[in-house]
Amino acid sequence: MDRIPILKLGHFLLVTIQVDMHDRLALVLQEELTARIVSDRARGVLIDISSLDIVDSFIGRMLSNIAGMARVLDAETVVVGMQPSVAITLVELGLSLPGVRTALNVDRGMDLLKASLDVEGEAASGQDG
Amino acid sequence: MHDFVLALKQGLANGKIDDLDDAGWASMRSMLTNLSRQRATQGFTPAETAIFVFSFKPVLFNQLRQAYRDDPASLAEEILTSTELLDKLGLLTMEAYQKTREAVIVRQQQEMLELSTPVVELWTGILALPLIGTLDSARTQIVMQNLLEAIVARGADLAIIDITGVPTVDTLVAQHLLKTVAAARLMGAECIISGIRPQIAQTIIHLGVDLGSVITKANLADAFRLALKKKRLAVASV
Amino acid sequence: MDKTVELPLRAQEDVVSVRQTVRSHAVAIGLSLVDQTKLVTAASELARNTFIHGGGGTTRLEVIQDTARSGIRLTFEDHGPGIRDVEQALKDGYSTGNGLGLGLGGARRLTNEFAIESKLGAGTRVVITQWTKKS
User: Fold this and answer.
1) Based on the structure, what is the number of domains in chain B?
2) CATH assignment, C4-131
3) A98: CB partners within 8 A, 6+ apart
4) Distance from CA of A82 to the nearest CA of B (A)
5) Which one of B137, B144, B186 would you mutate to disrupt binding with A, by most A Cβ within 10 Å of its Cβ?
6) Predicted-complex ipTM score
7) 3-state secondary structure of B208
8) Which tens digit of pLDDT belongs to each residue from B144-199?
9) Exposure letters B209-218 (e unless 16+ CB within 10 A, then b)
10) Domain of B135?
11) Which of A116, B217, C28, C127 lies in disulfide reach of B194, CB 3.0 to 4.6 Å?
12) The pTM is what?
């Protein structure tokens, strides 16, 4: 069974989904990511779905679950690169991916993650000072 | 005309005289269809196209008159048969003409649809989609796709959909617009809808359409100002 | 390209096969990218339902013709427990806890034609069709 590689980029984890996942693989990814957030003390997760030409309700729920679990572990999730036809289909399907932040590509996604960390940092130092 | 006569001879030899769908008339049918198609695309009227067939009548009748000079009963019979045949062939050209014109019109409509939905880049990362004219369901869907593709192509995360030039909006169109905004959000881009006229605002409330968290601005300029602010940009005098 | 294809739904990987087979046929008949994606997504939802809730079954794919357009018809069939209340199941978010959720209603919204028959204790059959635009 193929596994989806998870890369560490500074404080963040990057996952690029390029295969048509069956359900088991999606669940394994969910578990592995959660474990890695803890073990790597990641503050953010970037999920690149620019290669996916279909996102159904199962994958959609997976993305929402990852975002939810990450938040509990004090990490932000950003999903990047959704294709237009996939976005149109998800809207028609009625999936709004609650709790999932999105960005056009990995660069913008990184900017978003860094910005949210900065905001946190400022808020914290505000309390100290 | 020469081809017509040849095809006519072939048809009379091989096909049933009263059934033009018969296989023997195949080359006549295809010859006339091609002729009509050409004439339709060149802008001839349907009458001008059918006249090609009907102009054969006087010539044929003269020949028949001479051949059956001494036999008026047979002459009448032959003229009746040949006029029926030529009428059917004339109608065939009319039908082929119609179909071609319809295809041309459909293609032109397609082109107009594509022309009237341009996406404009106002600034790096800020797109504007100025909609003009009445929106119907089909057009709105094309507009939706164009915008989303432009968002990817230009790497823009802000899109202003301006409907100043749209006189009315119905529930279906309003829903399509909202779906576009939702889809853009899933892709990582934000939309601002500008130029909502008072009448449209009323329609939206009456229809019970929920704009949710979609940002709206009275006009394109205000929307652009907001877009600049969101991107931490400012305009300065030099 | 085959006119009719029968695909089993006995393992998770079969759902992926269905997606890929539907996609290649959708491309072959010239469905627009959005209509392809909608069809494949609907197929994925229904295939998963058949596999998980129907206890396994089959998908039949047919390439069909109308006067001015082509289409793909998919039939998802199982001999599982059946659905007690189809109307309820079609409403979004419905879930007996087995997560039929958005699948059925979603598949209906994504495709041109949708039909469902279900009998408790006997099984379920769902038929969806996606057509190209009239030429």
Assistant:
1) 2
2) 3.30.565.10
3) A64
4) 5
5) B186
6) 0.90
7) coil
8) 899 999 999 999 999 999 998 888 888 888 888 889 999 999 999 999 999 988 88
9) beeeebbbbe
10) 120-230
11) B217
12) 0.77
